[in-house]
Amino acid sequence: MADKAKLFLAITLMVIAIGAFYYYSGQQTTLVRVLGLLIAAGVAVAIAAQTGVGHTTRGFLLDARTEVRKVVWPARRETVQTTLVVIVVVIVVAILLWLLDMLVLSAVKLLTGRGG
Description:
Blueprint: H1 2-23, H2 30-49, H3 52-70, H4 76-112
């Protein structure tokens, strides 16, 4: 029950902050309104982080960061070679599809008698 109350408080805080952002559009500068919105968002996130959902989300993000660190990124040379292969394959497939389209168009013209 306490988790639901904390989440409700965080959501309510964000709704009020967004409302205030637009309500004070003529009275305050954009910088002040954005700073207020960012502070309110930080407080709302801090409140939401104290719930069970917040702890689960934090654990997920930490696990995701660990997995990203395990990724072996390709070297520059390998990336360039792979990119060139992809470009060549795309060009070859485009030419083949163009030729197939021309063949089908000729066949349709021949079958319908609408070609010169």
